[in-house]
Structure formats: C-alpha cells, structure tokens
Amino acid sequence: MTSLRVIAAALFAALGSQPAQQYRLREPNIRLDVNLVLVPVNVTDQRGATVTGLDRGQFQIFEDRIRQPIVSFSREDSPVSVGAVFVLSGSMKNKIDEARRASAALFRTANPGDEAFLIAFATRPETPTGFTSDTSRIQAGLGQARAHGSTALVDAVYLALNRMRKARNQRRALVVISDGMDNHSRYTKAELRSLALETDVQIYTVAIFEPARDLKPIQMDQERAGVALLEDLSRVTGGLHFALTGAADIPPVAARIGTALHNVYVIGYRPPGGIEGYRRIQVKATVKNLRLAARPGYYAASAGLPPPREERVLRP
Asked: Taking the alpha carbons of 119, 120, 125, 129 in that order, is the dihedral positive or negative?
C-alpha cells in the first residue's frame, strides 16, 4: 500500500489554502484515509425525503464492478461547509423572493459547527459574505441582492468551488439554485465539470424550468442545456438534483437539502492495489425503492499529479 500512502500525502497537501491568482493542484474527489476509501452517500425515498436508520448490512459497494467488503460504516452528522450559490440574473427576477425563503429553509437545520458563504451571481460575481457561522449574515446578504443582467451560471459554480478551498470542515457542499440560463460565462462547461470531478465537494442543485415562459428558441435551448448541466454536476459529485417547474417549490426543496446535508451515510472500504487511473464506484442498497447519491469514482495515480492548470480569476 506504499503507493497509496504517497497518493494520500500528495492529495492532502493539495487541499491547503492556495493563492487565488495562478495555479491549482488536483484535489481528492473522495476522502482517502491512507488505505481506506470513505464514500459519503445520500439516501432518499421515491418522494425525495431523506431516509435514516439503515445499517451496514443494507449496503453494498463495488469498485470497478468488484464488490468490496465494507470495513467501516457510520451515519454522519458532522459539521459542513456550505456554499450557497444563487444565480440572480434577469431571468430569475420573478423568483427572487422564493430564493430568499429558500436560503432561510436551507440553514434552518444548521449545526453550530457549520459554516457557509453566499455567492449571488448575475453578469458578474457578487460575494456578500465570506465563510461565516452566522447564517443571518447569509440572509442579510441575499436580501440586498438584485436579479439583473445576463447570466453566468458556469462561472458562478466554478468560483464557488474555488472558494471552498478556504473551508475549515472536511465535509463540503455547494447548493446551487438557478433556472439553468447561461449566456455570459467565460469558463466552459467542460472546464467546470473537470474541476467538479477533481474536488471533494458535493453539489446539490435546484433547477427551475418553466417551459411556458415567453422565451426565444435560443434562450430555451440555453436553459435546457443549463438544467442538464446542473443535473450532471450533482450526479458526478454525489449530490442531489431537483428539477422544478415553479418557483413556489424552491423553499421546501431547500429544506430537504438542509436535512440531507446532516444525514449522510459514510461507507469505508480498502481499495485493491495495483490499479492506477480512474476507479469507478457503485453503491447499492438491498432495500427496494431507495435512491442513492454517491460520487461515481475517484482518481488513483501513483505516477504523480497532473500538471497544474492555469486559472482565470473572476473578480467582482
């Protein structure tokens, strides 16, 4: 397991705080405790409600289609660092009040050890708060935000993932609320997806799609593509995705996410040696009619880390 120890040391080093200006190193996309892979899993029922009370024997975990013995298991309610991302462009103008109520619902179940930051993003990023344990500051910051301008969804999530480097908690999550519109981003969807795969952050997304609105065909295409992107980001990071057809459903869905953030199963197994590259993970439950959300894989590369990627800094 020597190679795994080397991997772990390099990966944990990459989690340190980085200057904002130039380069970043690949971060782990799941927790790797030297020779133990720890996989957070959200479990919901068919209505989307969080399921608690399951035990180790009701889960199975596979790496590259080979079942692995579960060597550790817990239901974790540890402190969470949360980035709340509200894309408040002109297309969200009629949903701003629901977005504010959603923020209140999201943090209603916050624990004392939690911390959060807010990014309100339209044409350019606005960061009303840095990390804070006082969720009333999040509410105050969102209360001052205004829906206006073009939309830069990809840039908003990219910026939030980088902001998460300064988080103090091991568990990290983004909650992104948007109608999916994007017509002003400088980063590409491929760049965002790559960063999401590399970082140890679960992305929970709420997409509001109202097809009856009077939009031009090109705007409808942009919105559909954005909604598909949000769903994909949740899938590849082990978060949850909610697609809504009306803004009134945003606050109750945010409350569900707040509950899910504090009811996570953590499954641990020892990875087989001698395999490099991307390792695929699949988690299954023996109980029927449950939905499991877990990151689908991680990178194991004893040959070393990939070259640093140049960053374009987004400034408010």
From this structure: negative
pTM (two decimals): 0.80
CA distances from 256 to 48, 110, 301, 308 (A): 8, 12, 36, 37
Contact indicator for 30, 298 with CB cutoff of 8 Å: yes
pLDDT of 13 above 70: no
Question: At residue 8, does pLDDT exceed 70?
Answer: no
> Which CATH number, 3.50.50.60, 3.40.50.410, 2.60.40.10, 1.10.287.1700, labels domain 80-261?
3.40.50.410
For residue 219, what pLDDT band results from cuts at 50, 70 and 90?
A: confident
* Residues 191 and 23: beta-carbon distance below 8 Å: no
Q: Are 254 and 205 in contact (CB under 8 A)?
A: no
Q: Are 250 and 206 in contact (CB under 8 A)?
A: yes
Reading the block at residue 54, the tokens are 């399951």
**For tokens 């023996």, what's the residue?**
286
Four-way CATH pick for 2-75+263-304: 3.10.450, 1.10.246, 2.60.40, 1.20.1420: 2.60.40
- 246-301, pLDDT tens digit by residue? 778 889 999 999 999 999 999 999 988 766 778 899 999 999 999 999 999 987 75
Question: Length of the chain, please?
Answer: 316
285 Cβ neighbours under 8 A, 6+ residues apart: 43, 54, 58, 59, 60, 292
